[in-house]
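re: ur question from earlier - yeah i can do the single chain one, its not a big deal. heres the input i used so u can compare w yours
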Amino acid sequence: MGDSPPSVCFVDKTLYEVRPQDPHATFAGARNPTRSTNSLTDTFLLGAGFSKAVSNQMPTMKELYNLLEGLIGQADGFNREVYEYASGNAETLLSYYAIPGPHDDPVEALRKRRVTALIEIGIGETIRNKETRAELSGLNPSANILLEKWHQDRSHILTTNYDTLVERIASQHDLFYTDLFPVPITNATVRDGGAILGSEYPDTFTLYKLHGSTAWYKSQNESTSDSIYGLPHNLVGDPKYQKFVADKRRFIVPPVLDKSSLLNHETIRNLWSQAKQKALIQADNIYVIGYSLPETDIAMRTLLWEGTRTRYYPNSPTPTKSLYVVDIDNQVARRFKNILGAYYHVYDRFTGSHDMFDKFVAEYVGQ
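and the output i got, formated as tokens:
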């Protein structure tokens, strides 16, 4: 494509110019740096691979799918034929039931809704048990180091994960979970007239849980305006606190082939809008950790594309942002290049081995 425009590398919030564009450039490896008074703005996108890097106890989508096999037959309509149709992906399985087809009659739509609730419970309980085991076995210290950096820099963190690992680590730093979200998540305990106060210092990183959370709950009906309730991670599953969400369903949204009704809730639409305007459009660098850009997640692809409308070059026909892929699979970077390479400079240096997350964190924080 000819000469590439100058790139920038990140070292202690200082800009450095790098020529030529090098997909394998390190953050601290720029030669002949030119100091600037400007600062880079960094946004992170997390997928299941991030949670797996934090603790090997956490399941991949394939492993979660295998764990859900035990639910077959527990609800009318959830049979092995449908299970195998999902081809090893728990989110594909959830999507099949969560989005009734135009060919479904009212009885079939109701049946699918019941199965959806069963799978939501199964996913929620499985992830909660895995998180407990992860904490008992010890979380990767690199995750704590990275989170401290996020806190210092007031970073924007987009995640497609349902789990609460980030919130769990944040709680160790006296950050209450509602301090992290850019949209109102009502503490479920206030339904009993009580309240749990947030932390004393809420000015921290922002967490955009684009696909919901195992600790979020919504109305049983299809209302798009009811409050979303949340529980602190350590109270989820506690019988003493389940009464606050006994009449609710877990709010988890699988990746979908279109911007379906699952994303029509007012709070979630607000969340996605802020992710675009504040996290992506304002970003100079995007760091993708353990997210594979699946074909089914059209909403995320669209969000990433629209996020290329930078604050500096709103109509630029060429890439002006850098996207760094951190993944054990180097094919993930190739997928990003194929799909979004016309809009981002995609870098693959931190791909291809199981220690990529630790290497990335060490370089990113300057250790």
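The chain is about 35% helix and 15% strand. not sure if urs matches, ping me
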